Amino acid sequence: MQIAIIGLGRMGMNMARRLLEKKHEVIAYNRTAAKTKEVVEAGATGAYELDEIPRLLERPRAVWMMLPAGSTVDDHLESLLEILDPGDIIIEGGNSFYKDDIRRAVTAEKAGLIYVDAGVSGGIWGLKEGYCLMIGGPREACDHLEPLFRSLAPHEGYLYCGTTGAGHFVKMIHNGIEYALMQAYAEGFELLDASPYGKELAYDQLCHVWNRGSVIRSWLLELAERAFRADPRLAELQGYVDDSGEGRWSVVQAVESAVASPVIALSLFERFRSRTENTFSNRVLAALRREFGGHGVKRTT
Known about the structure:
Elements: E1 2-6, H1 10-21, E2 25-29, H2 33-40, E3 45-46, H3 53-56, E4 62-65, H4 71-83, E5 89-92, H5 98-110, E6 114-121, H6 126-129, E7 132-136, H7 139-144, H8 146-152, E8 158-162, H9 166-193, H10 203-210, H11 219-230, H12 246-257, H13 262-274, H14 280-293
């Protein structure tokens, strides 16, 4: 199947590569040409200006945006509305706010285009392991795109979640849960580190044994094991933990829905606190974000 991917950052580049491995025809565009040239060497067709994309795709065209949430998505959407034709499909795969999807879908529909929102999870490991996909939008368009979803995801790793906005709404809650899980692990390791046994414990080995049948086993613990093996006390990191928006949106949604979500809320507030305190728990959080998503960290030197 043909697909154009706009945005070749940590996620977009590897998604393009995975689709190429699955024998799809990928048209790649990035604001900086060097990234485009890189994926062209892997077999993609390069587009070095946005307006090149329509002539490189057969109709109905499918264009997948993997861009930073916010105005960058709006700017590219506005440009695409001018160069695409009625019946073409735009997929927004970044971490957009679901209410922005609803607004954008109305704008696209007025131009005769179809808008699909896709929450994507998998981080820097998605090329090898596949991406978990949460999809929203018109069902017929999503069914048409299913060969792409099937190739990007691991077995049974994608789900049609509902009408416009549903994909990114589910991804938002997914990330809120992620915040809370990471905070629980971080606090647990800080308790261990402050205990009389902390200096005796090898945390990478502890993560390993917990992942052998315990009720708290998880991929996050596998990543923690990897981080502790490389740096047993995470001494190279500062406990500065950033957030990319979805945790804040989850807390706002909890207020709007009058749903008590204290653990998710507190995990977000702990990230705010991390920017003034260099605790061991915050170094654990920073290490986990680096391991699963390639997110930047602050180092001690």
